[in-house]
Amino acid sequence: MWCWSVLCLSWYPGEGMTLQQIAGDDWQDFERKHVWHPYASMVSPAPMFAVQRAEGVRLFLEDGRVLIDGMSSWWCAIHGYNVPELNAAATAQMQKMSHVMFGGLTHEPAARLAARLLEIAPDCMQHVFFADSGSVSVEVAIKMALQFWQAQGCEQKSRLLTIRHGYHGDTFGAMGVCDPVSGMHHLFARMLPEHLFADAPTACTDADWDTKGGDEAQIADFRDKIETHRGELAAVILEPIVQGAGGMRFYAPEFLRRVRTLCDANDVLLILDEIATGFGRTGRMFACEFAGIEPDIMCVGKALTGGYMTMAAVLTTARVVQGVHADANGEGAVLMHGPTFMANPLACAVALASINLLLASPWQQRVAEIEAQLKRELEPCRALPGVSDVRVLGAIGVVEMCEPVDMALVQPMFVELGVWLRPFGKLIYTMPPFIVDSKELRVITNAMNEVASVLSKSP
Ligand SMILES: *Cc1c(COP(=O)(O)O)cnc(C)c1O
User: Fold this and answer.
1) Which atom in ligand 1 lies closest to the alpha carbon of residue 302?
2) Same domain, 190 and 220
3) How many distinct structural domains can be found in the chain?
4) 273 part of the active site
5) 51 is a domain residue
6) Per-residue pLDDT tens for 290-331?
7) What is the C-alpha to C-alpha distance for residues 285 and 279, in angstroms, rounded to an integer?
């Protein structure tokens, strides 16, 4: 009790502050003291940059500075900000309804978005479950896999197999399949189910895709685990080709092809998490296209609404749907999930407009141009002593440092250089909006070169 009140007094200097009092110029100060940020300390908050508005690839800060956005707001805003087509879709839908419950009711935006998603997704995808965030879609995908086997009387098939360096979200089911080291396993070990982790394939650049992918040693541990545990495995879950928040690693399509073959041979479903890779980011609409394989269950999110609002979806096959409802126990099996904001009409309308805008644009050419420029302009970083690797795939450019990046030092440096980049761990990376032009991208790559070079000099 004593500790608690001392703590409160020491870091709630705004105690007694009323809503009216903060309505003025003090809101940034109030925010700093009371509002949590992702993976950040609430007791000693890092400096924040307040954004007043955003347009195209630019973020306009409250203090008047303008930044070129190299992050697409955590990889979502593929068309940039304040996009006329998306604004129009949101406004038109809002005038009809922003939301209605999806239990017992339905609406045209959900139907049209589902149709569009199934049209662009791998052929065998036939059904759509709308979820409210990427993590939740991973939970739903896992439930689908578990219920699939349960409904057929195979209750023992209840574990998942994945590879190291993965990231699938922050909710409990998703955390259970995140990398056990870089994920949060040590904090929540007692609460997390024990899934299986196989060695990840070697990270590669496109130049060595063919050679590394053909190597049997890459898949040996995965093969061993799936064959040994097939009787207890419901599904394999992976990010195809690009492992994102677990390390920005690219791996060979051949590995994914072998995973597909092993899943089939061992009666295990394959869940592909395309939340980061979907909607053109890698140069293909979905990254599984590199391997020419199709999943049993697929998660999409992030760029789904072009970064306008939170929404994700789980796509699946007719076989999985039939399996889930097979009902070996005679209890009328249905998928046990239903978020309050399921298939939110506003999000559906904007997502449909975003996909239409993508399809109407020369996105493949744009992403290929971004890829070529990133390769050209990030390559000089490789020669710096503090840099351990430079890799580029589609509109993803990564400079991996030898040591973890000091954010307190680096974040203001990027802002000073006029760009918004947010490194993590040893990784300085960019995933710009597809509408970035070559001059703007040049500002981003210059900043990455500059910061990597300063970090290479500091002891
Ligand atoms: C971001 C991400 C998630 C989680 O999505 P949220 O919308 O943040 O819950 C899951 N999987 C991958 C691959 C991601 O990149």
Assistant:
1) 7
2) yes
3) 2
4) yes
5) no
6) 999 999 999 999 999 999 999 999 999 999 999 999 976 666
7) 5
Based on the fold, state whether residues 291 and 373 are members of the same structural domain: no
Best of 275, 288, 311 for a ligand 1 pocket test (most atoms within 8 Å of beta carbon): 275
Query: What is the per-residue pLDDT across 98-115, written as a single tens digit (0 to 9) for each?
Result: 999 999 999 999 999 999
Domain check: are 119 and 173 in the same one?
yes
CB distance 246 to ligand 1 below 6 Å: no
Residue 69 in contact with ligand 1 by CB distance below 6 A: no
Is ligand 1 within 6 A of the CB of residue 133?
yes
Residues 153 and 110 in one domain: yes
Mean pLDDT of 213-225: 90
Catalytic residue selected from 302, 308, 426, 429:
302
- Is residue 149 one of the residues assigned to a domain? yes
Å from CA of 275 to ligand 1 middle:
6
pTM here is: 0.94
Residue pair 282/393 in contact (Cβ under 8 Å)? The answer is yes
267 and 393 share one domain: no
pLDDT at position 9, please? 41
In 3D, which of 120, 118, 119, 125 has the Cα closest to residue 270?
Answer: 125
Half-sphere exposure of residue 371, counting CA atoms within 13 Å on the CB side?
16
Reference 56, options 24, 28, 80; nearest CA is 80
User: SS3 of 430, please?
Assistant: strand
- 191 with 213, same domain? yes
- Do 268 and 377 reside in the same domain of the chain? no
Query: Residue 171 CA: which ligand 1 atom is closest?
Result: 9
Predicted confidence at residue 71, as pLDDT, reads 98
Question: Does some domain include residue 443?
Answer: no
Asked whether residue 110 is domain-assigned, the answer is yes
Residue 182 pLDDT grade (very low, low, confident, very high; cuts 50, 70, 90)? confident
Is residue 33 part of the annotated active site? The answer reads no
Rounded to whole angstroms, the Cα distance separating 225 from 232 reads 11
Measure the CA–CA gap between 166 and 347, rounded to whole angstroms. 27
Model pLDDT for residues 103-158, shown as the tens digit of each residue: 999 999 999 999 999 999 999 999 999 999 999 999 999 999 999 999 999 999 99
Q: What is the mean pLDDT of residues 160-181?
A: 96
Q: What is the DSSP string of 130-171?
A: EESSHHHHHHHHHHHHHHHHHTTT-TT--EEEEETT----SS
CATH code of the domain in which 161 resides: 3.40.640.10
Statement to judge: residues 238 and 278 lie in one domain: yes
Q: What is the span of the domain harbouring residue 126?
A: 87-360
Give 9 Cα–ligand 1 centroid separation in angstroms: 37
